[in-house]
Design brief:
Blueprint lengths: L1 H18 L6 H22 L3 H10 L5 H7 L8 H4 L4 H12 L1 H9 L15 H4 L3 H6 L6 H8 L3 H7 L9
Helix pairs in contact: 1-2, 1-6, 2-6, 6-7, 6-10
Length: 171
């Protein structure tokens, strides 16, 4: 199942880490990518909860990064066109929301329990749910609510609906 969403998860993670790069050296880059990948994985599994959903996005494609690029001011490089076509705007938005709201991230991960993606296997999302000081420093831009906020609010309502939360329950 995970392999079906692997291109979408990889491309959306890459978009987030290019738009909001790590602060520091190679370790910081790896820590930032790990956090983004965990948030994107949770968001993708919530957006495409069944094997049928995963198969359909594999056939139709997720839509690409054009809207996100315009929003973030990212320039388009013709050499990046292939991977950018696999970016999912909704997944990126949901991941951004999870990265900036710890309570929402915890609820989202809890919402995966018993789902088809986990298949009863425990999956750990520690860097998303409990980032340490190194994680926070590495992903300072990625987790900054003012910087990533415009992406996070794009599809926030749909994420709250998916999690069964009303506006009054989420800060």
């Amino acid at each position: 199942m995970l392999a079906d969403l692997a291109p979408l998860i990889a491309a959306t993670t890459q978009w987030l880490t290019r738009a909001y790069p790590a602060s520091g050296g190679a370790l910081a880059v790896a820590l930032c990518e790990a956090q983004a990948r965990q948030a994107v994985t949770v968001a993708a599994w919530l957006r495409y909860p069944t094997a049928t959903d995963s198969a359909l996005v594999g056939i139709a494609g997720p839509g690409g990064s054009a809207g996100l690029d315009r929003l973030s001011g990212a320039g388009e490089d013709p050499d990046d066109a292939a991977w950018r076509s696999w970016v999912d705007e909704v997944v990126a938005s949901w991941a951004a929301g999870l990265l900036t709201d710890p309570e929402l991230a915890a609820r989202a991960v809890a919402g995966l329990t018993g789902g088809t993606h986990t298949n009863g296997t425990p999956v750990e999302f520690r860097r998303l749910l409990a980032p340490d000081d190194h994680d926070r420093r590495a992903a300072a831009l990625l987790r900054h609510p003012d910087l990533i906020g415009p992406v996070a609010v794009l599809h926030r309502e749909r994420l709250l609906e998916r999690l069964g939360l009303g506006q009054g329950l989420v800060a």
